[in-house]
Amino acid sequence: MKKKKILLIFISFIFLVFVLTGCDISSVEKAFGLDMHGDSASDDNGSDTRVEIEYLNDDTDTPKTDSVKTTSSDKKENNEEITSDETKTSEISDLIYDDTEKRYSLNAASPDRITISFAGDVCLTEGCSVLNYIKRHDGNMANSFDEKLLAHMVDSDIFMLNNEFPYSTGGAPLEGKMYTFRADPASAAYLKDIGTDIVSLANNHCYDYGPQALTDTFSTLRNINMPYVGAGENITEASKPAYYMINGKTIAIIGATQIEGYANPETKEATETSPGVLRCLDTTRIKQVIEEAENNSDFVICFVHWGTEKSDLIRDWQRSTAVDMIGAGADLIIGAHSHCLQGIDYIDGVPVFYSLGNYLFNSNTQDTCLVTVSLDCTAADAVDIDTLRFIPCIQSGGQTVEAPQSDWARIINYEQGISYYAAIDADGYVKRSDKNHNVQNGRNTSPMREAENKAEE
Q1: Whole-number Å distance between alpha carbons of 149 and 404
Q2: Across 20-148, where does the E strand assignment appear?
Q3: In sequence order, what are the residues at sequence separation of 6 or more whose Cβ sits closer than 8 angstroms to the Cβ of residue 306?
Q4: Distance from C-alpha of 393 to C-alpha of 415, rounded to nearest angstrom
Q5: How confident is the model over 400-433, as pLDDT tens digits?
Q6: 384, containing H or E segment
Q7: Distance (Å, rounded) from C-alpha 174 to C-alpha 221?
Q8: Contact 143, 190 (CB under 8 A)
Q9: What predicted TM-score, i.e. pTM, was given to this entire model?
Q10: What CATH architecture is 97-456?
Q11: Where are the domains of the chain?
């Protein structure tokens, strides 16, 4: 009885404090470390509030003081695993991260828009200029980009790039292959520095060190909570789209490769029992994958490795593949592989970016780009493209920056001249056009064109 009396006095005292100080019940819950509603802590806007410290992947507990993410409701904080040598902490969250079914959910910056950015080829192979630059600049890949470009990448709800190499210390280089790439698994953590949300592995270098290195890549990316598409332990996994649930909508992302157009390629296609990539030279399977994705999502994106290296010419088989993909239900096609920019087109109202070029690949000075799409998700039964933007960039010396104003118009004018039924305004915004803007006349006009093409001029 005495204990009950003391408890009643204590509760009355707490209630009196509420009244006199104007505190609400949530303030007291926080003060006493309680969660009376069973929900994760929220800020004044109702978004998840989580305090996270990112750690360098160097077996120390030294925090990265220059982390590019600071907002409490940020999509990176919702997805990243928090680790240190002594502890591993996770907050209660209703967000989905399912690598088995490739289903993920994110909190968008806007309730009415979904922003997705795409970059081309990235290479972090050991000894390359890009990796050396990162190591010389505090071991943070964010320092490889200027602030404006980094903001575009980090502020997007989803940022995707082409991961053109395996993460492994094992395997052996493919015999007879001229260029073989491999990165230390520790390098995968750099992807987080620049806000990467998903990577495509469907390319001609992910298999450079054979099946062991490829499967090591899968486990490395899973260990850092980095979704991937376009390759897998078997053809079922390699064909599986990634599904992102955002703002009540579902966005499907598919990765596939069309290069190495012969029966027994160096980069092996996955089978029912062996690892590899999803190939789309024969479009039968990719059309089935797209049709399934269309039935299970509101918007389908295909990220495709195709085209001819060092050439800005679009091959007939690229266009025919795009036609097949769009016929199956693709809403946006993004391309890579040529290591140079290729043009933009609209096919049956669907935008096709044939190649985004090298994004952060080597020390060469060359034009490149970041593509950003803003999706309008206000309609109950549809997701539509609101804006589509080509942002001119320049790669040089192991880093990439948004092009200065003196180069902005030059790059846009070049991109316009190699594009088809797409118009690009002075700010880089892309829209469908009734006019064919291509002025190549069937010739490779890329600055990377081969010597014989120069001689023809």
Answers
A1: 11
A2: 82-83, 88-89, 97-98, 103-105, 113-122
A3: 257, 258, 259, 315, 317, 318, 321, 335, 337, 354, 355
A4: 12
A5: 999 999 999 999 999 999 999 999 999 999 999 9
A6: strand 384-396
A7: 22
A8: no
A9: 0.80
A10: 4-Layer Sandwich (3.60)
A11: 97-456
